[in-house]
C-alpha cells in the first residue's frame, strides 16, 4: 500500500506546492482512515457480551454506520472515524464508553491504537 507519486513543477509556485502536498496527504489519510474504519467494524462485531438480542442489534446497527471523513483544517488534515450519528442516537458512544447500566466495550479507539504501526506504514509508504 505504498503511496508513490511523482510531482513535477515547471515553475515554483507556493500555492501549487501546498495544494499538491495536501492532495497527497489526503490520499494517504484516506487509505489509513479506511483501514482503521475496517478494524473498528471488526472490533465492534467481535464484542460478544452482552449477548441479548437488543445489544446484538445495536452493535449490528452501529457497524453499518461506521465511516471515516477527511477534512482539511487550518494547518492540519484531520480524519474522523466512527459511526455517523443517525437520528440523534449515540449507540456507538455508549458501547465504547459504557453507561450507568452497561460496561464499556472499547472498539473504536483500539482500532487505531492497536494498529499504529500499520497506520504509520500506510502514511509513510512503507
Molecular structure report:
- It is a single chain.
- Helix content is 52%, strand content 13%.
- Helix 1 (14-46) packs antiparallel against helix 5.
- It has a two-stranded antiparallel ribbon.
- The model has no long low-confidence stretch (mean pLDDT 87).
- With 126 residues, it is of the alpha+beta class.
- The N and C termini lie close together (8 Å).
- The protein contains five helices and two strands, in the order ααββααα.
- The relative contact order is 0.18.
- It is elongated, with a radius of gyration of 18 Å.
- It has helices at 14-46, 53-63, 91-97, 109-113, 116-124, and strands at residues 66-73, 76-83.
In round numbers, the mean pLDDT is 87
Radius of gyration: 18 Å
| Biggest sheet details | 2 strands, antiparallel
Secondary structure tally, helices? 5
How far is the first residue's CA from the last residue's CA?
A: 8 Å
> Helical residue percent?
40-55%
Task: Give the oligomeric state of the chains in this entry, treating copies of one chain as homo and distinct chains as hetero.
Answer: single chain
- Biggest β-sheet: strands ordered side by side in the sheet: 1-2
Shape: elongated
* Extended strand count: 2
Layout of helices and strands:
Elements: H1 14-46, H2 53-63, E1 66-73, E2 76-83, H3 91-97, H4 109-113, H5 116-124
Antiparallel strand pairs: 1-2
Amino acid at each position: 500500500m505504498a503511496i508513490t507519486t511523482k510531482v513535477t513543477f515547471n515553475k515554483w509556485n507556493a500555492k501549487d506546492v501546498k495544494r499538491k502536498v495536501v492532495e497527497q496527504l489526503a490520499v494517504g489519510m484516506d487509505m489509513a482512515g479506511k483501514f482503521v474504519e475496517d478494524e473498528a467494524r471488526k472490533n465492534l462485531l467481535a464484542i460478544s457480551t452482552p449477548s441479548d438480542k437488543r445489544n446484538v442489534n445495536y452493535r449490528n446497527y452501529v457497524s453499518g454506520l461506521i465511516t471515516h471523513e477527511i477534512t482539511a483544517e487550518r494547518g492540519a488534515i484531520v480524519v474522523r472515524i466512527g459511526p455517523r450519528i443517525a437520528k440523534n442516537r449515540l449507540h456507538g458512544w455508549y458501547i465504547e464508553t459504557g453507561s450507568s447500566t452497561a460496561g464499556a466495550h472499547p472498539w473504536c479507539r483500539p482500532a487505531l491504537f492497536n494498529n499504529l504501526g500499520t497506520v504509520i506504514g500506510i502514511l509513510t509508504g512503507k
